[in-house]
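Annex B.
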Amino acid sequence: MAKNEIDFSELLDLARLRTDCEAIVKDGALKQLEARGALLPVLRKASVEGRKKARELLAKDGSGLACARRISWLQDQIITVLHDIVVAGFHPEGKDIAVAAVGGYGRGTLAPGSDIDLLFLLPEKNSDAMRKAVEFLLYVLWDLGFKVGHATRTVEECIGLSKGDMTIRTAILESRYICGSAPLVTDLETRFDKEIVADTGPEFIAAKLAERDARHQKAGDTRYLVEPNVKEGKGGLRDLHTLFWIAKYYYRVRDPAELVKFGVLSREETRLFEKADDFLWAVRCHMHFLTGKAEERLSFDIQREIAESLGYQSRPGLSAVERFMKHYFLVSKNVGDLTRILCAALEEQQAKAAPGLTRRVISRFTKRLHKIPGTLDFVEDRGRINLADPDVFKRDPINIIRFFHVADINGLELHPDALKRMTRSLSLIDQTVRENDEANRLFISMLTSRRDPALMLRRMNEAGVLGRFIPEFGKVVAMMQFNMYHHYTVDEHLIRSVEALSEVDQGRSAEIHPLSNTLMPGIEERTVLYVAVLLHDVAKGRQEDHSIAGARIARKLCPRLGLNPKQTELVVWLIEQHLLMSMTAQTRDLHDRKTITDFAEKVQSMDRLKLLLVLTICDIRAVGPGVWNGWKGQLLRTLYYETELLLSGGFSEVSRKERAKLAEEELFQALGDWSQKDRRTYSKLHYQPYLLSVSLEDQVRHATFIRDTDKAGQALATMVRTDNFHAITEITVLAPDHPRLLSIIAGACAAAGANIADAQIFTTSDGRALDTILINREFPVDEDELRRAGTISRMIEDVLSGKKRLPEVIATRAKSRKRNKTFVLPPSVTLSNTLSNKFTVIEVECLDRTGLLADITAVLADLSLDIHSAHITTFGEKVIDTFYVTDLVGQKVVNENRQANISARLKAVMAEQEDELRSGMPSGIIAPAPTPTPSRKTKASA
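Bifunctional uridylyltransferase/uridylyl-removing enzyme: predicted structure tokens.
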């Protein structure tokens, strides 16, 4: 909507406002302070009602720019009326000052919660009375609740300061007269244009682009964050503002549409600029109205409401909020395209102007072209690849792909002029190009490059080439997933996965995941692995399972990319099973033989196992910062080694009983410096599950811990160990056995703010529980983490001993956390008797909340189920917890009615919207217990 088409009269009865304000001060009876107080309700009412009307009109016409201009106009009127009242009633000298809007407000756009940036211009001969007029006006604006950024200067001061301060220069560039002495603003604009802008275009452009790059770097240097900053983020409003500042400064224009006559933007690109500006303003205005403040981060908790406000509807495979966010990221990408086009035009213009510029500028912009060996279509221009002539792409569309390949093998940056021409040539990439053998060979060469394949893929994606060349990839460009687990859009995640694979391939990840780093040099099917990594999530956003749909896409696409039938089937299998290893490692008991045999049956070969391991690592690492940790790496390594034994025929044929006996003897020998009595006592303390699943090193450490506790006469003790590499802190609890022990420990951890990653549960032969709780590490320094772990241990001991009541401490913790209302996930419960030969496996899936694990384990205790092991996995806002259980006599739960009851009880506790406090939970369990509880005793001896 053009500015002159907006009807501002709906916002405010300006004549009525002026009359009401003048009536307050007309008789001069009120003092200044009293007058300020009397003016406030009148001006506040005008502001509130005007903004309310602007919000209604935004909902009606959907134009963000119109809304921003309405609010700017409304603010102008309030300031003008206030200025006139000050001059008429209190400070007549105020007529000689000028009030100008600067910054974004100077462009005539203002978001509902944004600061109001004002410049008060004083004549060279000014007085204290003028400054008092400024103070009066500012005090009223502050009292109205506005955040006012302001400066009071003469024209001479503005010119002087803008010479050495690029921020001030930018603010003055966008100055706009509001009220007061108009000649002062005119004088500033004339002198600024003559004394500051003239001949300083390159300097200003370089500063603004450097400022933009630093801002992008601070924000993570990607526009594909799933909670983007609409104002400051890459591809956001500030990037559009930067383009406008540069255009206005260099081309002396006041409207982006004027760039068409300079040949900078086409009419279509100008419309793209206007549409992007309008859309981003609409999002920003909705954000401010919705939150009631200057909120610039498009966070999960407001995305759904904004999508609804903007009229998005759900479609098969994509929710309304995901469709809205995809549109947002596509607009953000368009901003990047416009940036490249403008930069190319600027460089071309400045190169033409080089004879009249300084030597420094000449050295930067003079054409210095060099031939690139092996090609006549491209040239090197100061370390950047450019086109030898304007028709390179039109003459041979394969050159669009060849352009990136030549850049890759020669290590060249991309010239903005070439990218501008490429953006305008995307329609040349048709089915003929896609099926061209040479084009596909070049693409695979880049994908599997030993240099930096992710960099080239990202550049192809930014230019719009990747999505055109592989349309299936194009469908996930800018696609976000509405959850807290994935930090990036799907296309960015896939490219980051390739980046992680390249690190492994180049041997640069030995410290992060040593096993894959060791295996990678021996993997023969590099091409298969790179293609599978690039395409593993390419079917996201469809109604069917993305793994199955992705495998079908791969079966069709791989032959086109030049893969033979064997390679194609391997890619298909990897994509279809790309979640298998991750989910098995994180949600299954890796010490249960059935887990390994089931996994090995699906993998079937060592080649597949190696490829799947590397793919899984790259997938997890590319999800987002902090998602990958050493504990997940350890789980994957354990699964790999156990499966390797089975696939290579290395599993021992010795019976479980004999292996447990051998482990007991090894522990006895390892306690060699102890007395014979202690060696016998503490080596015979454990049952088969412990002896077969705990390493000898940990068995010795546990034995020492138990003996020390016994010597101290303690009924309860905890032991802490940190593990920086695995990003896990281990808390071992020795206590009298109790059916609710795990529930109470989990509750104590929740109360202390600890996230449990896993739990190893064992019972000793003398009726005590030896439970090891693994919690996610929080601090990088061991001393800090040990202090935190000590606090958690004390909380566990206090709850177990009855010093603190668990319902109260959990309630305190829950109150301090904001309940998540953003995501909806129906609770799910699955019971299986086929995943383990000995245990019923219960898997629950629901939204995470404080005290959830304690509640679930308490329900399992109420149901007389004995938990053998627990595996807790968190995916953002979602948790998948798996429990290996038996009934009180050590048998699987096979009765269908009982299974249904278990499922119903668990769903009930998971569905609670508030943390229910369990009144029946015991306050302490340290009092001498009766005979060891049957459930733990039976389980341990099973």
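The chain has a mean pLDDT of 86. The first helix runs from residue 14 to 25. Further annotation is deferred to the next reporting cycle.
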